[in-house]
Known about the structure:
Mean pLDDT: 89
Low-confidence stretches: none
CATH topology: Nuclear Transport Factor 2, Chain: A
Number of helices: 4
Strand content: 35-45%
Largest sheet: 6 strands, mixed
Amino acid sequence: MKIKYLIIAALVLFGIVAVRFLVQTDEKKIRAQFGLLAEWISKEPDESPVTTSHNIQHIATLFADPCAFKADIISFTGSYTPDEIAGFVGRSRFSMTYLTLKFYDLDIIFVQEGVAQATVTAKLTGKTRSGDILEATHELKTVLTKTEGVWRFSQVEVVEVLKK
């Protein structure tokens, strides 16, 4: 009898642990979107055309239609479709031999059901085709909206350029 109860308890415990690992919270899903954005914007020096195409196409999936941008420092302010954003990123990546985007200090606040504000520090490093080194750190304020179960960026604002 005791073995039967131990087996049942072990199965229940295993089920609870499995559900916790398999079901992502909204915060984890948003963090994952930032991770994908960093991965798909970044460019390796020996990146193949297939990888480039894959990354640019997938960047569009991270953004709501439309998405409001306010990035005066790169003259990219307005309301854009996901395809327009992917095109801008593609042109920007093309001018670089390598590019790395990393996010730090991600702070997420859920303002209402299906809407979250996230503030993050973004560090962009790279090298242009002409040999110039790029090192920029920006604070970003973003709004993500949940549509069809997926969190997408609906607003992105460059709040300030951080100085070293």
